[in-house]
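Quick review question:
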């Protein structure tokens, strides 16, 4: 006889409220996979060197990038493919959850590599800084532990009592996933989880992404009740930090070490955006090939015939001529933008910040005097960046650009200090042909003197930013003013959704 609920005498439990943990096998090409594996190899080598002195065994078995300064792999070229795949998967996840995301903005907030060696494990934790978290496995030995175990979010009755769990739900107390290469897992960041002991001989390589979700910028701050408003509407506290001599010295030496050699610049596994945000500029070598440099220089020579010179700062022996958006210059700009796009997208998140405001050239001739150190604009919260492309080799004497690292923030004090050369030593951009420098317009910089007899320094440059900032003089042909944005020169290929493949 079947008893109804009312007739039953014993206590009854009902399993309710499921949670969404999604999985998918990705299919990277050999090249994409190799790029990611090479990166992880470099991380493992770097982190081993760093900790060589460290005899603490436990620490050696687990290395997570968010604890040793590597937590923006979403800004790297090596992980660009994966970052796009994760975006597509997040959109699928939201659609499957019937969450409308047209009024939301999504961000890759943090992403970091994890190296686990035999005996390594991760204790129970969650990611309170994010909404969704993803894990992608790159390398792991089969049947060697290291399972990702999720805890039932509802199974604790008494907060803080670790031995406690709600009665009646033994089957859903824990849920585990076996790691395998190319498996992507996405889950709510607030879910408690841990990683079981790993027993493989080969290092287990995985990466984690933390994704933040806020109200869309278009909602402003007045239509997003109970949601975090878009970060572009936030304002950081303007109080200045202690810049005592000791601190200043430390910054000075760290900075010098960080950019002493070009090799350090290209090999440091710190993200481009972190470097740009810290220093106010970012150097990329070999963004275009010498024949293309020659072609652009040919167009500069043509522009001189037109006689449409712009004069910016000290004009003597420096010629600024705005350039035409020809097939060559447009192609060059598009290709260079690919190099800087992750940085630009992070730094210029809003449409109004992405206008093409300059498209021009400068040529520094023998006899040119040095410019005064200056920022291109003084408004701390306005956005403007310039990309300079060196068409010839830039030697010591031919009028190279100098920049004063880290002077783009807390500017009024920094300008004063940098002019006295107290905080950071100016860095001279001695670079090969086809190299480029991305510069925050708030950064203190100058063109140096050209003391050579016969070397010129031709540079192609373009700027993106807000159109109504007081101060900067924009060099651009009148027809192009306020007409184009960064997005007109970028191929928009990502964010395609794909059907969800279930993995058992
Ligand atoms: Fe985690
Ligand atoms: Fe300038």
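Suggested answer, residue by residue:
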């Amino acid at each position: 006889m079947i008893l109804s609920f009312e007739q039953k005498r014993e206590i009854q439990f009902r399993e309710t409220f499921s949670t969404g943990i999604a999985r998918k096998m990705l299919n990277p090409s050999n090249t994409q996979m190799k790029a990611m594996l090479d990166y992880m190899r470099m991380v493992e080598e770097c982190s081993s060197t760093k900790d060589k002195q460290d005899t603490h065994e436990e620490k050696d078995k687990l290395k997570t990038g968010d604890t040793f300064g590597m937590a923006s792999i979403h800004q790297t070229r090596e992980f660009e493919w994966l970052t796009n795949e994760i975006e597509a998967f997040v959109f699928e996840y939201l659609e499957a959850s019937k969450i409308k995301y047209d009024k939301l903005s999504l961000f890759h907030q943090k992403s970091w590599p994890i190296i686990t060696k035999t005996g390594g494990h991760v204790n129970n934790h969650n990611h309170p800084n994010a909404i969704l978290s993803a894990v992608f496995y790159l390398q792991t030995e089969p049947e060697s532990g290291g399972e990702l175990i999720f805890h039932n979010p509802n199974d604790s009755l008494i907060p803080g009592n670790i031995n406690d769990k709600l009665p009646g739900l033994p089957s859903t107390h824990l849920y585990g996933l076996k790691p395998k290469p190319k498996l992507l897992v996405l889950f709510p960041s607030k879910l408690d989880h841990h990683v079981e002991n790993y027993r493989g001989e080969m290092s287990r390589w995985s990466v984690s992404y933390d994704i933040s979700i806020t109200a869309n910028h278009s909602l402003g701050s007045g239509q997003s009740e109970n949601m975090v408003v878009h970060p572009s509407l936030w304002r950081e506290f303007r109080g200045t930090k202690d810049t005592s001599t000791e601190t200043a010295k430390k910054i000075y030496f760290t900075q010098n070490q960080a950019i002493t050699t070009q090799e350090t610049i290209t090999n440091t596994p710190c993200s481009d955006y972190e470097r740009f945000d810290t220093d106010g500029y970012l150097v990329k070598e070999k963004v275009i090939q010498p024949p293309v440099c020659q072609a652009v220089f040919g167009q500069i020579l043509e522009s001189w015939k037109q006689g449409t010179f712009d004069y910016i700062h000290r004009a003597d022996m420096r010629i600024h001529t705005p350039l035409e958006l020809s097939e060559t210059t447009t192609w060059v700009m598009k290709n260079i933008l690919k190099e800087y796009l992750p940085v630009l997208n992070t730094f210029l998140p809003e449409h109004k910040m992405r206008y093409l405001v300059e498209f021009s050239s400068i040529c520094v001739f023998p006899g040119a005097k040095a410019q005064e150190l200056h920022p291109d604009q003084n408004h701390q919260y306005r956005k403007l960046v310039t990309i300079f492309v060196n068409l010839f080799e830039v030697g010591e004497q031919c009028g190279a650009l100098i920049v004063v690292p880290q002077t783009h923030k807390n500017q009024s004090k920094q300008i004063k200090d940098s002019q006295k050369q107290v905080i950071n030593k100016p860095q001279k951009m001695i670079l090969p042909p086809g190299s480029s420098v991305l510069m925050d317009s708030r950064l203190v910089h100058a063109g140096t003197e050209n003391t050579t007899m016969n070397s010129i320094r031709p540079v192609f440059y373009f700027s993106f930013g807000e159109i109504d900032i007081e101060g900067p003089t924009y060099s651009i042909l009148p027809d192009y003013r306020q007409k184009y944005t960064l997005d007109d020169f970028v191929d928009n290929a990502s964010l395609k959704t794909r059907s969800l493949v279930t993995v058992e």
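Why it works: The chain has two domains: 22-233, 245-489. The chain is about 25% helix and 20% strand.
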